[in-house]
Amino acid sequence: MTAAAAATTSDAPILLRDDADGIATLTLNRPQARNALSVGLMAALQEELDRIRDDATVKVVVIAANGPAFCAGHDLKEVRGNPGREAYEALFEQCSRLMMSVVTLPKPVIACVHAMATAAGCQLVASCDLAYAAEDAKFATPGVNIGLFCSTPMVALSRAVGRKAAMEMLLSGRPITAAEAKAAGLVNDVVPADRLDAAVAEMAQLIAGKSPLTLAIGKEAFYRQLEMPLADAYAYASEVMTRNMLARDAEEGIDAFLAKRPPVWEGR
User: Fold this and answer.
1) Model's pTM, two decimal places?
2) Which CATH code of 3.30.1330.30, 3.90.226.10, 3.40.120.10, 3.40.50.300 fits the domain covering 3-208?
3) Which of 14, 111, 140, 250 lies at a 20 to 30 A Cα distance from 266?
4) Going by CATH, does the domain composed of 212-259 fall within 3.40.50.1360?
């Protein structure tokens, strides 16, 4: 456990990390605050993601949480306790950097959502590459209810779901069910609560068996091409595939497929 993750007002760390079989699980651990993203918790998450970026032993990251909620968004008590433009700008810049780190991390990130995810908590789910939810989980961007439109959560949400679904969540503040979240494209699948950890582990293990180089190339290309016009996206993707084909792992993967044997990835 790193120093940032251990910083807390109680004996329990605010962020837990567990590594096994190439999968790093980061667990939000502020259950009494419904895992609200305090400055300290965001710093702890940022520190671990920065460490994982250059950790060759980690192939996949899972973000989970303890307690009655997955994440309640920003810590409003902390926010109101430190008012002013400078503090607000620093807070939202910190949060935006964290969300960007999830997207730009060269390893797949999976959200394991066991309960309610609201505001910046919903933003965190939308920022992850994949998300799986328990049947009784709910999602909301309820800032409009307290006079604070969820503008930064909107960035991730509007890139994960359709415009109409995103605007309905943002304008109404109404929570949606896990089933509605799946229909909207916010989560990949919904499973019984007692099957959630197993379902996430199964997908994480499946992905961890792929070439880490290929995963990094593919994840970066996926998000970059989304922002391009169609012709530019095809030109960019063609260049990426050419570069990918020249990699040792692509040669090994194709040779292994043709020889009907498991590939041995070298990460180059």
Assistant:
1) 0.93
2) 3.90.226.10
3) 111
4) no
**138-178 pLDDT, tens per residue?**
999 999 999 999 999 999 999 999 999 999 999 999 999 99
The amino acid at 143: G
Mean pLDDT along residues 11-37: 96
- Detail the DSSP E strand segments found in the chain: 15-20, 23-28, 60-65, 69-71, 109-113, 116-118, 130-134, 138-140, 176-177, 189-191
Among 156, 150, 163, 267, smallest CA distance to 217 is for 267
Residue with tokens 């909107």: 154
- End-to-end Cα separation, the chain, in angstroms: 30
Residue 200 makes CB contacts below 8 A (sequence gap 6+) with: 62, 64, 110, 112, 132
Please report, for residues 102, 124, 232, 264, the alpha-carbon distance to residue 111 in angstroms, rounded to integers and kept in the order given.
11, 8, 31, 28
